[in-house]
Amino acid sequence: MAAAADLVFDPWDPAFVADPYPAYAELRARGRVIRYEPTDQWLVPHHADVSALLRDRRLGRTYRHRFTHEEFGRTPPPPEHEPFHTLNDHGMLDLEPPDHTRIRRLVSKAFTPRTVERLRPYVHGLAHELVAALVREGGGDLLSDVAEPLPVAVIAEMLGVPEADRALLRPWSADICGMYELNPSPESAARAVRASVEFSDYLRELIAARRKEPGEDLISGLIAAHDEGDRLTEQEMISTAVLLLNAGHEATVNATVNGWWALFRNPAQLAALRADHSLVPSAIEELMRYDTPLQLFERWVLDDIEIDGTTVPRGAEIAMLFGSANHDPAVFTGPDRLDLTREDNPHISFSAGIHYCIGAPLARIELAASMTALLQQAPTLTLASEPKRKPNFVIRGLERLDVELR
């Protein structure tokens, strides 16, 4: 086991959150698995290990399919958090086979490539409308004016959430996602619980309405999806809808603003992109690697595993450092250099294995649409002021990104 990470890895330190990548290099130099006492986790910083562990069935997003809390040596969550855990624990991201397999199969029947492709004109049209409004104003906050409304509207359109209700979604999502940070505060937990109750109640009413009058939306598709007599329960539908919304826009919002902030800091790369819009697909992959929207992903150890001679026991929690893996020089040449032409780019920003992001194709469409619209309509876009980074470590983003046209 490598030396303790406490002096290098500090997810509550604003300086670390602002730029964790130098610390990741130190962690990788210390070893392949590192005990971190403040969160009672084992940190895994290397790309090869993270990639392998994401596919290792000795690890799980949950342990409840095999053990009780007590058998696993864990304390049950406090009763007042129950609404959050009911919502979270019935989504496929936090389930293991056979429940995960069943739910993902049924969701895939509604969330098909054809469904996603059918949204492409809507995505491109909305991206151009949002950017046109930004241009008319001579600039603004790229986060609130373009990056956020685009994926929220797209997933709401996909789910069938009426336009008048869509302003409710982002605040609920933000409060729920606060529970995914390391050691969330009691205040964050209370907000997440309240949002879980309100969001679940809202979706329960929407599902009831779609049962009476089905439409072409994903909620109607989830109601109809079945396989050999198997259907999603109402709670599974609610949890799936929340998961698709949260996962379907959080990463896209943050990838957009993190990406443009990186481009502004690398003017030669931005100039190359402006000169050649065919770089957009490789630019999206590189920007997601360069400043990873989801920095850390956790797994429970269901059976003892050995990493580089160190046994990580059953009942432990592993924290896979996506941001570090995406900067591993063993995989990426010049990992701290932004290279929009990078061809070999096996980043793991969309995860891997059975929990690979089901919405990755849609996210790529959204990111390409907003980037292309900005390149076409706002070729003189520049940074108006230094952005402020959110204090969160796990979900990495900015408070705002003020831009102007010159």
Please provide a written account of the structure.
It is globular, with a radius of gyration of 21 Å. The strands form 4 sheets. The chain has a 5-stranded mixed beta sheet, with helices on both faces. The protein has a 3-stranded antiparallel beta sheet with strand order 4-12-11. Strands 5-6 form a two-stranded antiparallel ribbon. The chain has 406 residues and is α+β, with helices and mostly antiparallel strands. The chain has helices at 14-18, 21-30, 47-53, 82-89, 99-110, 113-118, 120-136, 142-147, 149-159, 169-177, 186-212, 218-224, 234-265, 267-275, 280-290, 322-325, 360-377, and strands spanning 34-36, 41-44, 59-60, 139-141, 226-227, 230-231, 296-301, 305-307, 310-312, 317-321, 381-383, 402-405. The longest helix is centred in the middle third of the chain and has 32 residues, at 234-265. The mean pLDDT is 93.
Question: Gist?
Answer:
The protein has 406 residues and is of the alpha+beta class. The protein has 17 helices and twelve strands.
